[in-house]
């Protein structure tokens, strides 16, 4: 279905591991000779998407059961080029996304050191560039994800590469992955500071699950432009005020939060989002990964509207915020 008549939209929070059409993933996997755990395409689709009735007990399960396979399939220069290319074009065709920021962890796509990180990043950038030539209406940028499962030294390696390729289309840095006891946000603060000095945008996954202490640290000390999720801020009115005052933009992903049991149910989601609205916190509506969660920015908006969580006017305002908070500069007409 053509989305040409839809209002132009921007999406800021999409993980490459959750964003590629299963049909394309299936072909990429076979072309590379990856031995898949299933032999029927439909079983594969079921394996990498959250179909009806599926729900994770937490973000940890999502990472272990879904991302493990998608990241493996995307772990070569050829695979990542195709993957990135398909997401940028797909977003434009399906949702009229004229601005898209796509994030991925290069170090989770180098087959534990077997592949060269530079070539993984360059291939991702090339896939993005190709898509932007094919779809000249689209502005896109890649966010390089550091990961909670890696040490500060490992993440520093990734960061230096992100800085090196910033002129080619790396626009920001993120810290992803489920909570881990071994991870210290404090130990990563110097890396984020370095990223900022180098001109990269900063977004951090924080407050997706219940770690309010870490979220406070991120807001007060790291002071990023954007935060991935940030839901648990809703429990702390003082922190909400600080987020609003600093102009930090939260990247919300409603369906993902429901399917990963980050919020208990629609009622809780309703309460959290209304708390943000009431406190003047700016936020954007995203998918976290349209294919894995079988959603899109349009579907997310329709969902929030149909559940009476947000009005059309509020959703349009969120979309304006998305364009304003983007690290990518939209194309000049
Ligand atoms: Zn995310």
TrEMBL record:
Q: Belongs to which family?
A: Belongs to the metallo-dependent hydrolases superfamily. Adenosine and AMP deaminases family.
The residue range of the signal peptide is: none
What protein name applies here? adenosine deaminase
One example GO MF annotation: metal ion binding
Q: In which domain of life is the source organism classified? A: Bacteria
InterPro entries, alphabetized: A_deaminase_dom, Ado/ade_deaminase, Metal_Hydrolase
Q: What class of enzyme is it?
A: hydrolase
Q: What is its EC number?
A: 3.5.4.4
Q: Does the keyword Zinc apply?
A: yes
Keywords per UniProt: Hydrolase, Metal-binding, Zinc
Question: In its UniProt record, which GO terms are filed under biological process?
Answer: adenosine catabolic process; hypoxanthine salvage; inosine biosynthetic process
Domain (Adenosine deaminase): give its ranges. 8-332
Cofactor entry: Zn(2+)
Query: For this UniProt entry, what's an example GO CC term?
Result: cytosol
